């Protein structure tokens, strides 16, 4: 799936939060949205997901406007995982993940063998098999996040939008999740705070500041000391770690 964002703006009365953003995400590409709090990453993702209506511009999926899709069609083609997703239900983990199969079934048909196989694979991929029968209310924050990620995988969509998906996850599961995002054939747009994870696993980084895109390209071209000083107000050093991955070291905040 190709995603095109064309001159997109969105805001609330009296304040523009996303301003004239344009970007093209190629099929199968993993694009990381980075930037400080309040830069517009989450708002942009929600517009791309069709959950907010832009005040200007448009979003195209394989050349088609998202407004032409029904909610069911959108859920078949696109999965969205929020920063924090909660529910008051008493569903078990496997039942939450099975919700990802709902768009692919008729209203009158229950899950079949293929649905159960897909859910089992998603549970394995997110290290949740042992928790399949655990009630949602008994899960930790990280386990809940992994459950919603598994649900998104079970949707089997061409596009995957992730808003701070590593929140609440321990280091191991952060690495596994980002490895998944970087290796899946799906088109992925992921908002991240961790610049090292973004640099390591994303094909391309889009740096946002005050609602606008200020840099777009390879990690080595986007994560530069001058840009980090301008956008994040920190003095930084860019280098390589022992494994050869791009590393960002912070010396001190910028005093303005």
Automatic annotation (TrEMBL):
InterPro entries: AAA+_ATPase, ABC_transporter-like_ATP-bd, P-loop_NTPase. GO terms for molecular function: ATP binding; ATP hydrolysis activity. SMART domains: AAA. Pfam families: ABC_tran (PF00005). PROSITE patterns: ABC_TRANSPORTER_2. Residues 3-235 form the ABC transporter domain. CDD domains: ABC_Iron-Siderophores_B12_Hemin. Keywords: ATP-binding, Nucleotide-binding, Transport. This is Iron complex transport system ATP-binding protein.
């Amino acid at each position: 799936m190709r995603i095109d964002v064309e001159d997109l703006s969105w805001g609330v009365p009296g304040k523009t939060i996303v301003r004239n953003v344009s970007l093209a995400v190629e099929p199968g590409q993993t694009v990381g949205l980075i930037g400080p709090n309040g830069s517009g990453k989450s708002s942009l993702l929600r517009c791309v997901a069709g959950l907010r209506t832009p005040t200007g511009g448009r979003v195209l999926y394989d050349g088609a406007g998202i407004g032409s899709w029904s909610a069911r069609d959108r859920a078949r083609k696109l999965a969205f995982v929020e920063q924090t997703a909660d529910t008051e239900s008493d569903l078990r983990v496997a039942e939450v993940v099975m919700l990802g199969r709902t768009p692919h079934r008729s209203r009158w048909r229950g899950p079949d063998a293929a649905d159960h196989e897909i859910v089992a694979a998603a549970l394995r991929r997110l290290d949740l098999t042992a928790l399949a029968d655990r009630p949602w209310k008994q899960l930790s924050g990280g386990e809940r996040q992994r459950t919603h990620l598994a649900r998104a995988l079970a949707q089997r969509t061409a596009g995957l939008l992730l808003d701070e998906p590593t929140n609440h996850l321990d280091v191991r599961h952060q690495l596994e999740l980002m490895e998944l995002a970087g290796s899946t054939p799906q088109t992925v747009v992921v908002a991240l705070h961790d610049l090292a994870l973004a640099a390591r696993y994303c094909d391309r980084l889009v740096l946002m500041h005050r609602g606008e895109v200020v840099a777009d390209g390879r990690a080595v071209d986007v994560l530069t000391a001058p840009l980090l000083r301008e956008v994040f107000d920190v003095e930084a050093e860019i280098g390589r770690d022992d494994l050869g991955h791009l590393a960002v070291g912070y010396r001190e905040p910028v005093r303005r």
